[in-house]
Amino acid sequence: MFEAGQRRLDTEQIVTMRSNDPDYPMKAYAVEIVEGITSHREEIDEIIATYAEGWTLERMPAVDLALLQIGTWEIIFNDEVPDKAAIDEAVSLARQFSTDDSPGFISGLLSRVLDVKPTLI
Description:
Layout: H1 2-7, H2 11-19, H3 28-39, H4 41-51, H5 62-77, H6 83-97, H7 102-120
Helix pairs in contact: 2-3, 3-5, 4-5, 5-6, 5-7, 6-7
């Protein structure tokens, strides 16, 4: 998701390009994530925008937005991943790849998504 946004490429192009990369082929679950987010993008972005108090999607660091999209998709649309695991993984990746404030922001927003999940599905 991050690469597609940064390179301004369609997600299908990224999946095709990365899936055919002999040195670093895209794993099946990564393809599932990208396809899942792509098919529910409007809903996912609306959820994020609704609960990201004081932040617009355009104002968020690109890494944070990608992690929030993945986490939101896993919480709302993927029953195979435990909700808390989705949040923990997004926070862990934010610690590695984003700003010092990002883990708390992502944890808070995804926790809020989890709290309102029954009203969203």
